[in-house]
Amino acid sequence: MRFWWVFVLLSLFLFQLEANPEVRIRITQRGLNYAKEIGMKLFEQELRTRIFPDETGTEKYLFGIIDYTVSRIQITSISIYNSSVVLIPGNGIRLLIKNISVTVTTRWTLNNWLIDYQGEVDISIFELSITTNMIVTQNNRGDLLVSVQNCQLSMGNIEVQLNSEGRWYYNGFVQHLEKVIRTRLESQLCLNVILRIQKETEVLKELKGVFQINPLIQVKYSLITPPEVFKSYVDLDFKVSVYFSRNHTESPFVAAPFTLPEKNNYMLFSGISESLLNSITLTYYTTRVSKHSSYFNLTTDTLSRVIPQVMQHYTKSHPVRMKLMVTAAPVLRLQNNSFTIEIPCFVVVSALLSNSMIKPIFAVNASIGLKANAVIAKQKLIVLPQLQRLYLSLTYSSIGSFQVQRLKNFLSYSLQNTVIPPIAAALKRGLQLPTMAKLFLSEAVTEVKKGYILISTDLNYKY
């Protein structure tokens, strides 16, 4: 019997671990190909500036044992004619670099008791290929890791051109020189590929980070599961926490599952969940950034033009104060092609009597409905709202019942000048999207889906 209790508890625990992401990023084959092209350019630049370690040794030759040195081994030109990224479902990525042509220059010396020669040599290598297998995963801190499992290199033909006098003597050294260069390149080229991948991995860690929305509110991204590799894309699932800088509390909103489209027409797709947007608005409200009380001054004479019953109770003109309060955090709802924001408000209208007393005239609950557009600007998701509808219900009246809908136009004007602007300003600050150094979103398009906002974008690398 105890076994079943343990089984139930373990099942519940595992269910909690399988949390849905607040943000899902999908890197498509097109995006990986673009990243590969960037990597190849940087790889070529690094190789052209790299001087490989010297080689020294002894070799049996025509006149006995000679000492040799091969120094300043440097690639002067490199051409990569074919490269590709192959995704291995699960967690594997294979980088294939084929048909590479390389020209290497080096200095050499030969000497013993009888001879002392030195010179330069140009070595051309054709049909060189490199295959690198990688695994993508994460560590216990939620950092994205890319580890190289192996690197294999193969070479085709080698041509050697000597640039010194006395070739008749040391032409026999060419075969050994070819062997030295081949050995050096086999070890150093794979090492450079691995180092290049490690550098890019360090940049990938920037996808996980903390961003400041304002002095009070932070947004923290972290991977909740290891990256998942499919046949034509890689998915990254992020947990996103929104909290006070001084007090980290979990959001009450739970992300619903959503799926990204099976497309390859953009380099990157990203889904921003409805729960994350509601967490942000709740945090703004809690920090009183969007909690707002406004006072709007008018007179009973002005108010009686909208509600005639006011004149029956206030024959003399008195100042009137209208207080508008946001009573709860705005709620965002995402449906297909529909982005709405509901803001609950409470409105109290009071007369200021001659004896300085304040007498409430009426109070209404107001539900403000905003329609919104989501756009991408400066690597941020920005929400632009505008008033769509206003629903009113009378909760108190000292002048008897009246048609509360008569207040719509008047309150709409008041709300658009008091309550809505600070909320719109908060939403316009935007949500910082996870990005990498020198890599920027390009031609981003947003679509509102059920439960999430889809961002489709290409990428642009700034060299």
Automatic annotation (TrEMBL):
Secreted is among the record's keywords: yes
Biological process according to GO: defense response to Gram-negative bacterium; innate immune response
Chief site of localization: secreted
UniProt keyword Secreted present: yes
Segment forming the signal sequence: 1-19
Keywords linked to the UniProt accession: Antibiotic, Antimicrobial, Disulfide bond, Glycoprotein, Immunity, Innate immunity, Secreted, Signal
This protein's GO CC annotations: extracellular space
SUPFAM superfamilies, sorted: Bactericidal permeability-increasing protein, BPI
GO molecular function: lipid binding
Pfam families: LBP_BPI_CETP, LBP_BPI_CETP_C
Domain of life where this protein originates: Eukaryota
Subcellular location: Secreted
Domain Lipid-binding serum glycoprotein C-terminal: 262-457
Domain notes: The N- and C-terminal barrels adopt an identical fold despite having only 13% of conserved residues. The N-terminal region may be exposed to the interior of the granule, whereas the C-terminal portion may be embedded in the membrane. During phagocytosis and degranulation, proteases may be released and activated and cleave BPI at the junction of the N- and C-terminal portions of the molecule, providing controlled release of the N-terminal antibacterial fragment when bacteria are ingested.
Family note: Belongs to the BPI/LBP/Plunc superfamily. BPI/LBP family.
Subunit and partners: Monomer. Homodimer; disulfide-linked.
PANTHER family (alphabetical): BACTERICIDAL PERMEABILITY-INCREASING BPI PROTEIN-RELATED, BPI FOLD-CONTAINING FAMILY C PROTEIN
Record protein name field: Bactericidal permeability-increasing protein
Lineage: Eukaryota, Metazoa, Chordata, Craniata, Vertebrata
Underlying gene: LOC113432781
